[in-house]
From TrEMBL:
It is a multi-pass membrane protein. The chain crosses the membrane at residues 43-63, 68-86, 130-151, 194-212. The keyword Transport does not apply. It is found in: Membrane. Keywords: Membrane, Transmembrane, Transmembrane helix. GO terms for cellular component: membrane. NCBIfam families: R_switched_YjbE. This is YjbE family putative metal transport protein. It comes from Desulfofundulus thermobenzoicus.
Length: 219
């Protein structure tokens, strides 16, 4: 009984800690949509994210054998962070056709990149118990939905937090890249391992603003 309760507690903590980045991406992707579309984008983005987590849970063992998977995922997350910063610099165009599904695609793509750690953490805490695994996957839904709704409100009131969000995604990308088994021996230890995520977080914000400014000059 104690082992079961400990596993449930571990799953709750893992979801609270690791679902934050997913909620942040959803909030940043949806922040400029009309209120009605925000709710729909959060729903469909979360639905797609949960479906991906189920697939990842089944395929996790095989995915880990793919060379440079986390390196490619980290680089893709950097691109998503830059894309979200660029969208923030062009809020006057947010109501153009297709931006709703573009937001959903961004959410699902980012969640695919970031969910592997979450899935592996929950699977480890479940210790082979199918019902605990299902509980962990189900628990991530209200956490992500509630978290993204709260973050959207913060982003609306404090636009500067968009930069903070992009920096967090850059940091997450750096951590993901360092975990890649082919990269870790070269960058994942000592000073490079401590500095790289911070440097990448700063680079994402700097490059994003320079890119946005450059784009404005040519418009």
């Amino acid at each position: 009984m104690f082992t079961f309760i400990a596993a449930v507690f571990s799953i709750v903590i893992i979801n609270l800690v690791l679902s934050g980045d997913n909620a942040l991406v959803i909030a940043m992707a949806c922040r400029c949509l009309p209120a009605v579309d925000q709710k729909k984008a959060v729903f469909w983005g979360t639905f797609g994210a949960v479906a991906l987590r189920v697939v990842l849970t089944v395929a996790a063992v095989y995915l880990l054998k793919i060379p440079f998977l986390q390196l490619v995922g980290g680089l893709l997350l950097v691109w998503i962070a830059l894309k979200l910063l660029l969208e923030d610099s062009g809020e006057e165009n947010v109501y153009e056709a297709g931006c709703f599904w573009d937001a959903v695609k961004t959410i699902v793509m980012a969640d695919f990149v970031m969910s592997l750690d979450n899935v592996l953490g929950v699977a480890a805490a479940a210790r082979g118990n199918l019902w605990l695994l299902i509980f962990g996957l189900a628990l991530s839904v209200p956490i992500v939905v509630a978290g993204s709704s709260l973050i959207i409100k913060i982003l609306k009131r404090l636009p500067l937090t968009v930069d903070v969000g992009a920096a967090i995604l850059g940091w997450t990308a750096g951590e993901m890249i360092l975990k890649d088994r082919f990269v870790h021996p070269y960058l994942g230890t000592g000073v490079p391992g401590r500095v790289f995520p911070v440097a990448l977080a700063g680079a994402v914000v700097l490059v994003g603003h320079l890119w946005a400014r450059r784009r404005e000059e040519f418009q």
